[in-house]
Amino acid sequence: MDLLLLGPPGAGKGTQGVLIAERLGIPKFATGDLLRDAVRLGTPLGLQAKAVMESGALVSDDIIMGVVGEELRKPTAAGGVIFDGVVRTIPQAEGVAALLATLGRRIDKVLFFDVTDEEILSRIEKRRGIEGRADDDPVAVQRRLKAYREQTAPVLDWYRGRGGVTTIPAVGTVQDIADRVKQAIGA
Fold it and tell me: Cα separations (Å) of 157 from 29, 45, 151?
């Protein structure tokens, strides 16, 4: 099963992605993790990504899709994957669809984690207190929410136009949300 998790930063995609991956026994792909692994391993695409990241620029869709393609071809991904934050733009959505098509697969379900900005800000403030993440300061969070609204929110409409988007009310306990996800995917 190939699943795509969409939603704003702090909506719970990462937390739920881990739970789904454990339950289904499939890997979770997060862009940052995939890029860091490629850099650490010194792959050709990893070296390209490293140069871009060190310059402070955003890694191009071509590099991201290359890294995702390499991961999709691994035996561990043969039974499906969970895409968490991999698709942030329409060209990336098209790229993932094309990569999966080369493997005779497609996104089986898109889960949109729906949550208010107020809830997001509250969650991220709590996470900042617990994890001390530098990217969780209020200015950075507002910047990420703005980028999400401008770049990633249109991806939701792109998938809705193709059918198969399930909205998950991403409020309540982690278990409440996990139960909604389980019901939505039937597993």
Answer: 22, 30, 11
45's tokens = 């695409």
CA distance 100 to 125: 36
Q: What is the pLDDT of residue 8?
A: 85
Structure tokens at 156: 């939701």
> What is residue 75's predicted lDDT score, i.e. its pLDDT?
95
Per-domain boundaries in the chain: 3-178
Q: Which residues pair with 84 in a beta bridge?
A: 5, 30
Mean pLDDT of each 10-residue bin along the chain, 187 residues long: 90 92 94 85 88 76 89 94 88 93 95 88 72 66 79 88 90 94 91
Q: What is the pTM of this model?
A: 0.85
Q: In what order do the strands lie in the sheet with 3-6?
A: 28-30, 82-84, 3-6, 109-114, 165-169
Three-state helix/strand/coil letters over 21-33: HHHHCCCEEEHHH
- Alpha-carbon radius of gyration of the chain: 16
Q: 49-84 b/e with 16+ CB inside 10 Å = b?
A: bbeebeeeeebeeebbbbbbbbbbeeeebeebbbbb
Class of domain 3-178: alpha beta
d(CA 147, CA 152): 7
CA separation for the pair 80, 74 (Å, rounded): 11
